[in-house]
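Researcher: Sit down with what I've pasted below and flag anything odd:
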Amino acid sequence: MHERRQLTVEGLTLAYAQAGEGRPVVLLHGALTSLDDMMIALGDVLSDGRQVIAFDRPGNGSSERSATSGSLWVQARLIKRGLEALGVRRPILVGHSLGGDVAMAMAALAPEDVAGVVALGPIAFPEARLEMLLFGPRATPVVGDAASYAAMPIDALIMPVLWRGMFAPQTLPDAFRAAYPTDQAGERARLRAVGEEAAWLVADMTRLATTFAVCRTPVHVLCGDADLVVNPALHGRLLARVAPQATFRAAAGVGHMVHHIRPDLVLDAVLDLERAAVIA
């Protein structure tokens, strides 16, 4: 696991890790993962000449949760204030899946504070999703904890299947197998946080989708064209069509974890946004 530091924002502890020095790049992980996922895939790739900062999104990894921290808009606000506390100015945001949505929300809330967004396999529009069925009941007041306890034997069976599905059609990379704490990702509290995010998802994505057409931030959307988790045509490609300064690229034969399989394409996107920022 990567060495974590902590800061307090609005009474919540947020965990983060850092590597390198230079222009800031912020990494935001997707559902069922933590900052370790992003750092394993991109930490070394992006930290040459850059300050890479990866967050455990609220409720995930080692970051604390609140009653509303399952909302991607609340997460966007908290992470923005965390970056302000760290003195980070106009970073490039690299977000995977739901982390890409948090990055887009940050750009909507304060476009002047974001140099660009790289959205990796983002869920761009509201839809019914498997997470709502598997984990959503755990966010129910009063009975949520009971549901979490009751589901523990099932979690032990389905989590390996979910991991394979996220990487399919590829297999889990050796670096990920060796370094990622998959046992912690399946802990009851972390899966409840996933349920809370699922409970907020439709309302949050409906609001987020209304911001794309007026987005002033440069956005690079990168998806695997064999993604089994998020349909790239219905989400990433459409996002790039709606957002005025967005581009779309599909990685051939790659699944949802495109940052692990094609980190070179992520670096290309970051480099392009850096050049654009210098010209601007």
